[in-house]
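For the sake of transparency, this paper describes our internal protein records without simplification. Such a record has a labelled line for the sequence and another for the backbone structure tokens. Nothing more is needed to write down the fold, since each code stands for a local backbone conformation. For reference, a complete record is included directly beneath this paragraph.
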Amino acid sequence: MKNFKLVTFALLGFAATSLASCSAPKEETTDETAVDSTTLVVEEAPSNTVVDIAVGSADHSTLVTAVTTAGLVETLSGTGPFTVFAPTNAAFAALPAGTVEGLLKPESKDKLTSILTYHVVAGNVLSSQLTDGQKVKTLNGQELTVAIKAGVVTINGIKVVAADLAGSNGVIHVVEGVILPK
């Protein structure tokens, strides 16, 4: 209750200050192009990393939970660039019962990290750069195999259902299954 009162008083104080500043007379200036460099505020451009894209997608909440549990958020929010083959929630749900829950346990962190880094390739690989039979090395050191048949792209047999979701540090290709390392 004490915290509620403090927050209420703080909000009231802020509102009063805002109202007072709105009704205060404005100073006249003769040079409308003059800028006081001491009050110049530079805002950073909003981030839109591959992690931000996944966080903003309702279809990737399980992936976001897994990336967080594995401690990969900072890495995948870094400079990159990264190409991420992002499984949907339905892809994780299709795994045998208990698999996801087991992977999210602290003692399974290494296995979870290996699976997740198997979905990430260094570089910005757009769908137009993928070729049938192409091998791409993942961050976990193993390779993925690209297949293109009748215009359908698969990665290790898993269908790509959305491609080229561009972020500030890479690209995401949504896949309909979890790609498991060998």
In short: The beta strands are 82-87, 120-122, 135-137, 143-149, 152-155, 158-167, 170-175. The two ends are 56 Å apart (CA to CA). The chain has seven helices and seven strands.
